[in-house]
Amino acid sequence: MANPDAAGTEGEPFRMDVERGKIREFALATGSTDPYYLEREDPVVQPTFLTTTFFWQSDESNPWPAVDLDQRRGLHAEQEYVFFGPPPRAGAKLTCQSRIGEVFTKQGRRGGEMTFAVMHTEFRDESGRLVARATMTGVETARPPAEES
């Protein structure tokens, strides 16, 4: 069962270097043919590129395990990105920090309680300016899906 006391848990800040090659690889992996991402010397990131923060996080910087969702009943419900100016460009060095926001329950339409957990990750540039915020919502259903025979 998800841990409601995880709300407020904060991970240690971590650094994410935005590299031109990684922007290109991400664009190719997502099926983009846009030369803006593939050929420019200083491309901006695609909005969902910030998902790659999971490759940069360590045990100390990732607060999500504190939520303790049962993975047999867990779903990735939503992902949102808000930018506070232009997206980061190749060469940016971002300081990121994740924290667990809300942990709450709702009654499901098919019966059973669902537990929602929300994690916010802030991305700041070298001057400390907030560049972007990612919000991820996970859900734990009341019971695991029926097993197939």
UniProtKB/TrEMBL annotation:
- InterPro entries listed in its UniProt record: FAS1-like_DH_region, HotDog_dom_sf
In the UniProt record, the signal sequence range is none
Task: Identify the species of origin.
Answer: Lentzea albidocapillata
What name does the UniProt record give this protein? Answer: N-terminal half of MaoC dehydratase
Q: Which residues form the FAS1-like dehydratase domain?
A: 7-133
Domain of life of the native organism:
Bacteria
Q: Which Gene3D superfamilies match?
A: Hotdog Thioesterase
